[in-house]
Amino acid sequence: MIRGGVLVKIILFADPGIDDSLAIMYAILHPEIELLAVVTSYGNVSVSDSTKNAAYLLHLANHPEIPVIVGASHPFTEEPQVFYPGIHGEDGLGPYTPPDDFSASIYPFEKVFEIIEQHIDEVVIVDVGRQTSLGIAFNLKPELMKKVQDIYLMGGAFQVPGNVTSLAEANFYGDPNATNIVLNYAKQVHITPLNVTNRAILSREVAVYIYRLTANPYKELLRVITQYYANYYEKVVPGIKGAPIHDVFTLYYLLNKDKTYTIERDVNVVIANESKGLSVADLRATYDKPTKKHSIALQFDYRHFIEDFISIMIKDVTK
Ligand code: BDR
Ligand code: CA
């Protein structure tokens, strides 16, 4: 899609969170990505924690000028928010708490429209958190948002078990109204559901290997957050060795479509009742022709994925 020496300009919507943090590191280190901004949100942690974590990761990489834009503080529904300290840590970075004072460029939500307008022909939006902020963007500026060529979402579980309930994946469950707004209004959505991301495992061995080889400013943080993350998954998922880095996979997918099997379908998400957050698509070979042609990733080459992750995470921050 990019290639030929041109950087992909990404706005990353995220709720860091450990795998979100790894995705921010991957974006910062990747020579083919220009990170235009991070839009934070409630989700794995509160919006104030996710904002602080995103800003801290940019500060560590010596990129305090990259805007961190404060997004949604809660979903459209009235339900109380649930955070996930067992998976992501009390503040979102496992056992680590960032200091209170460091340089950062924090902006209110309107900033995202300014950045999209500036880069309308090339910007790609990647949302690896609850979709509330992106849904709000579509609500506030539908005409502008419909011009965004490509939107990537980490979310959903298509005819495989969910993670937050037996049916639903956490991001699509968090605010299904918002997810449906994005799915209904966006030009083209590329979805990386649990079908693939659950298999995008970072093992302890690979995490240690990266730790030993890397000299970049994320080295120490990488060690503690990947250990914390693996501890949780190994406790709750029998036989797993390590933990799935869902949000990293979405960025990998964007840059490596040829290594992934995808199908095109219309998709929507169940809003209420006991099936809340269930992602629905007609996966039959004889499905009705989709109107939207959103794509769903279903298979990938694990070896290529993990080798790519290693090669990016051992880079110095030189961009
Ligand atoms: C998704 O939910 C969050 O916990 C992760 O950061 C990821 O975006 C996986 O279901
Ligand atoms: Ca996330």
From TrEMBL:
Q: Name one GO cellular component term.
A: cytosol
Source superkingdom: Bacteria
The protein's matches in Gene3D superfamilies, at most eight in alphabetical order, are given as: Ribonucleoside hydrolase-like
One of its Pfam families is IU_nuc_hydro
Q: List the GO biological process terms.
A: purine nucleoside catabolic process
Q: Which UniProt keywords apply?
A: Glycosidase, Hydrolase
Molecular function terms from GO: purine nucleosidase activity
Report the residue ranges that make up the Inosine/uridine-preferring nucleoside hydrolase domain in this protein: 10-306
Concerning CDD domains, the annotation shows: nuc_hydro
Identification of the protein by name? Nucleoside hydrolase
Query: What species is given as this protein's source?
Result: Bacillus coahuilensis p1.1.43
Taxonomic path: Bacteria, Bacillati, Bacillota, Bacilli, Bacillales
